[in-house]
């Protein structure tokens, strides 16, 4: 799963791009986009949906 996640991040931050100029806002935007993306591993649910379901069940 980690390698897949790295590949998803690379869609927004190519290896050739320096991370020195990335703002916190840009990182949060990427994080939100990835958390809104359905995942096969999660039966095509979004990570934030799984988190919400688990939080409600606790």
Automatic annotation (TrEMBL):
A cellular component term, taken from the record's GO annotations: cytosol
Alphabetical GO biological process terms: transposition
InterPro entries in the cross-refs: Transposase-Integrase
MF terms (GO), sorted A to Z: transposase activity
Name the UniProt record assigns to this protein: Integrase catalytic domain-containing protein
Source organism per UniProt: Candidatus Endonucleibacter bathymodioli
């Amino acid at each position: 799963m980690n390698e897949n996640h790295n590949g998803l991040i690379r869609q927004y931050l190519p290896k050739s791009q320096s991370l020195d100029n990335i703002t916190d806002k840009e990182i949060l935007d990427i994080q939100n986009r990835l958390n809104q993306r359905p995942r096969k591993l999660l039966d095509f649910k979004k990570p934030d949906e799984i988190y919400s379901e688990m939080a409600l069940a606790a």
